[in-house]
Amino acid sequence: MAALDDGALWPTGFALTALTPEIEDRITALLTRAVLTRAVG
Q1: CB distance 22 to 15 below 8 Å
Q2: Whole-structure pTM value
């Protein structure tokens, strides 16, 4: 059984079922990490 969902954020399509402060923080962290990784690499 595949566990594709992770609470309100589905990483396979990044569809938001709800935007909570926790999800907003998670999105911010993911984007920050992506930008910093791209800047360094």
Answers
A1: no
A2: 0.56
Query: Residue 19: what residue type?
Result: L
Could you tell me which residues come within 8 angstroms of residue 9 by beta carbon, excluding any fewer than 6 positions away? 16, 17, 23, 26, 27
The C-alpha atoms of residue 1 and residue 19 are separated, in whole angstroms, by 27
List Cα–Cα distances, 39 to 2, 12, 22, 28, 36, in angstroms: 33, 24, 26, 16, 5
| Residue pLDDT, tens place only, 5-26 | 556 655 555 678 889 999 999 9
Establish how many alpha carbons lie within 13 A of residue 2's alpha carbon, considering only the half-sphere containing its beta carbon: 5
